[in-house]
């Protein structure tokens, strides 16, 4: 589903010169799998996800999603993915229902499919109480649920989620985690970045630890434990970063 | 891009727009309320300035330098106060006179009216002087015609009157062809 090969991204500015944000990263994510990208701030997680979502052009390397290469067929790639960015990108003066309906239309969904899909997502994400309220009047959790619903609306084969539970309370985070598990059960390929170790441990089939733009290690929890000799993901993560707990 | 997508984006943008109070104020309230209000205020203000200038023009003297008594009488007949000055332009610019009138000998005699157009009072005074002298000129022409045995009516071969025949509804949707000019000979 997602095939990333030697992907790199360099940024240049007059003050800091050229900086390699993502350095020769390779990994695969399969259908029905949740792959967690773990890393400290500035590790290159968001840059990697943005390149896969065709929002950034890679400096070198290649990646394909559901068979479509990100630089050669960006439109086709966008049709395959649901991308949740950190800033959510919601329209403040529209209600969640209006936003979902708008994005449904953009994705070419007919009225009946839109209505049934929106109804299903509203129920799944427990959004009934605020679907008619303007988005700029909603709490962070409500906005995040709306953004997740928008990401999943057109039933994309690949979900790319950039810190979907960041800043949310436990019940809201749990609802979103449940939605991710449901997507996995439905055979979706989920690529997911997070800071929350417990969440990654619970949700992810495989985890990739990224630091300084480089992929330090990829594996299941058992593989990571075996390689590092640590038990908890927090310890594994710090060990891979060369830090003591 | 498919038409349905264009339509969806248009509808979303319109919805977004009508819910944006700041945009609504700048797009609707300002053109509909504020601009007409400002225009109304400025028109009233201009009108008041004009009225005030005309009043001032009546009370201020006009500087003159002329030799023909009939011209001086024509101005006095129009209740224009006159004062003799050597430098008419200076009198107007220093506002010791609202306007200046100078008679320059020759055939025909040339009468120059000096006005400071940046000063509404001066312009109004110059307009009063012009009307008074035009009346005087017309009267002189009539006298000459009468002296030659030609009737005054030769000066008015026809009158011109414009009549609007558009109804109320048509007037709102203005049509050029609805206006007729009739000449009454």
Tell me the domain tally of chain B.
Answer: 2
**Assigned CATH class of the largest domain in chain B:** Alpha Beta
The CATH topology of the domain at 2-89 and 158-240 in chain A is given as Rossmann fold
Give the tally of β-strands of chain A: 10
Distance between the termini of chain B: 67 Å
Q: What would the principal axes of the Cα set say about the shape of chain A?
A: globular
For the record, give the distance between the C-alpha atoms at the N and C termini of chain A, rounded to a whole number: 35 Å
The CATH superfamily of the largest domain in chain B appears as Periplasmic binding protein-like II
Please, how many helices of chain A?
Answer: 9
Largest sheet of chain A: 6 strands, mixed
Overall pLDDT score of chain B: 86
* Alpha plus pi helix count of chain B: 6
Beta-strand content estimate of chain A? 25-35%
**What structural class is derived from the secondary structure elements of chain B?**
alpha/beta
Fourth-tier CATH superfamily name of the domain at 2-89 and 158-240 in chain A: P-loop containing nucleotide triphosphate hydrolases
Rg for CA atoms of chain B: 28 Å
How would you write the strand order of the largest sheet of chain B?
2-1-3-4
Topology pattern of chain A, helix = H, strand = E: EEEHEEHEHHHEHEHEEHH
DSSP helix fraction of chain A: 25-40%
Keywords for this structure?
heterodimer; A: 245 residues; alpha/beta; 6-stranded mixed β-sheet; 9 helices; 38% helix; B: alpha/beta; D-Maltodextrin-Binding Protein, domain 2; 4-stranded mixed β-sheet; two-stranded antiparallel ribbon; disordered C terminus
């Amino acid at each position: 589903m997602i095939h990333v090969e030697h992907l790199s991204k360099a940024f240049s500015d007059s003050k800091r010169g050229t900086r390699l944000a993502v350095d020769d990263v390779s990994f695969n994510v399969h259908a029905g799998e949740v792959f967690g990208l773990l890393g400290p701030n500035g590790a290159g997680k968001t840059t990697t996800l943005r390149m896969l979502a065709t929002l950034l052009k890679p400096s070198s390397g290649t990646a394909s999603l559901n068979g479509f290469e990100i630089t050669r067929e960006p439109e086709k790639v966008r049709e395959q993915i649901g991308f949740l960015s950190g800033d959510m990108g919601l329209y403040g003066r529209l209600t969640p229902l209006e936003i979902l309906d708008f994005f449904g239309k953009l994705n070419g969904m007919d009225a009946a499919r839109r209505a049934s899909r929106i109804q299903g997502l509203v129920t799944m994400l427990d959004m009934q109480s605020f679907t008619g309220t303007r988005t700029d009047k909603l709490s962070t959790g409500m906005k995040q649920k709306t953004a997740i619903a928008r990401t999943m609306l057109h039933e994309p084969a690949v979900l790319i989620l950039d810190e979907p539970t960041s800043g949310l309370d436990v019940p809201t985070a749990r609802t979103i985690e449940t939605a991710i598990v449901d997507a996995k059960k439905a055979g979706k390929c989920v690529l997911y970045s997070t800071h929350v170790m417990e969440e990654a441990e619970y949700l992810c089939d495989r985890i990739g630890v990224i630091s300084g733009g480089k992929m330090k290690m990829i594996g299941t929890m058992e593989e990571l434990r075996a390689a590092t000799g640590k038990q908890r993901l927090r310890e594994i993560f710090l060990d891979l970063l060369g830090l003591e707990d | 891009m498919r038409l349905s997508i264009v339509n969806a984006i248009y509808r979303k943008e319109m919805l977004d727009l009508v819910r944006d109070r700041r945009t609504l104020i700048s797009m609707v309230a300002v053109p509909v309320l504020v601009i007409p209000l400002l225009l109304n205020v400025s028109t009233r203000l201009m009108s008041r300035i004009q009225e005030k200038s005309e009043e001032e023009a009546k009370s201020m003297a006009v500087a003159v330098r002329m030799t023909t008594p009939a011209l001086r009488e024509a101005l006095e007949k129009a209740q224009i106060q006159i004062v003799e000055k050597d430098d008419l332009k200076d009198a107007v610019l220093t506002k010791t006179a609202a306007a200046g009138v100078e008679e320059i000998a020759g055939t025909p005699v040339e009468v120059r009216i000096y006005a400071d157009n940046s000063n509404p009072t001066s312009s109004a005074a110059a307009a009063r002087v012009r009307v008074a002298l035009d009346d005087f000129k017309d009267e002189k022409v009539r006298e000459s015609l009468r002296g030659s045995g030609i009737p005054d009516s030769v000066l008015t071969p026809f009158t011109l009157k414009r009549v609007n025949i558009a109804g109320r509804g048509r007037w709102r949707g203005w049509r050029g062809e609805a206006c007729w000019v009739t000449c009454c000979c």
